[in-house]
Design the sequence.
């Protein structure tokens, strides 16, 4: 079936791969789409083919199809502690104050390792972020045309003994930005704000509000090395 104008297909390109301005155009096009979308980012790490039909509806060769990587919800936690209990969100080793009905056999703190623990209410240790960056650099960077990074780099605010601060949200973005710069030196990385990149959680003040200006300025500093100089 012929593709209609603007319809997504698997065989036609977002931009010609031979264009000398491809990187800047990809960044601008994807940034515009993300800016028009929802504030909230959902957990997804996908390796996808991208393509958009051209106005003539003619199919192009498979060589004109590009690839992108979607990275989101890194939730960097500089306070992660190896060997900590999951009850403390991996912030404190036992013994610490626990509820009366606490069952250490179910907590799994003995298995909280250097790179985190699966299926627990803990966020990502820096060691995991760095290891992931190295893997992406080695195995994926040369296969991609651009990367979409849809935020949620700040840790969750679920530990009452260590309330999350605005500075810690920006710290998470700084760490994630540095890791992505290291992994993808030669391709565009398009950043976007997630619901855990603002304070309070899920609330982004209206444009022009001092809290919004503070958030945008801080994230711009974190993301600046990823953004083309002319944008």
Sequence:
């Amino acid at each position: 079936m012929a593709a209609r104008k603007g319809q997504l297909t698997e065989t036609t390109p977002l931009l010609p791969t031979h264009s000398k301005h491809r990187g800047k155009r990809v960044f601008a096009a994807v940034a515009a789409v993300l800016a028009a979308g929802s504030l909230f980012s959902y957990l997804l790490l996908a390796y996808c083919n991208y393509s958009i039909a051209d106005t003539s509806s003619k199919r192009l060769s498979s060589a004109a199809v590009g690839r992108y990587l979607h990275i989101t919800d890194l939730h960097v936690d500089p306070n992660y502690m190896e060997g900590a209990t999951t009850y403390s969100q991996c912030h404190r080793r036992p013994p610490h104050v626990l509820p009366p009905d606490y069952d250490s056999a179910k907590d799994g703190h003995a298995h909280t390792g250097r790179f985190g623990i699966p299926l627990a209410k803990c966020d990502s240790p820096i060691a995991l972020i760095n290891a992931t960056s190295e893997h992406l650099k080695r195995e994926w960077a040369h296969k991609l045309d651009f990367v979409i990074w849809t935020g949620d780099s700040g840790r969750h605010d679920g530990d009452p003994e260590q309330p999350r601060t605005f500075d810690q949200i920006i710290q998470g973005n700084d760490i994630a930005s540095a890791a992505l710069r290291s992994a993808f030196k030669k391709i565009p990385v398009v950043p976007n704000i997630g619901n855990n990149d603002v304070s309070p959680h899920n609330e982004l003040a209206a444009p022009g509000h001092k809290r919004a200006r503070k958030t945008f300025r801080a994230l711009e500093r974190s993301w600046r090395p990823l953004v083309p100089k002319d944008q």
Notes: The CA atoms of residues 48 and 68 lie 6 Å apart.
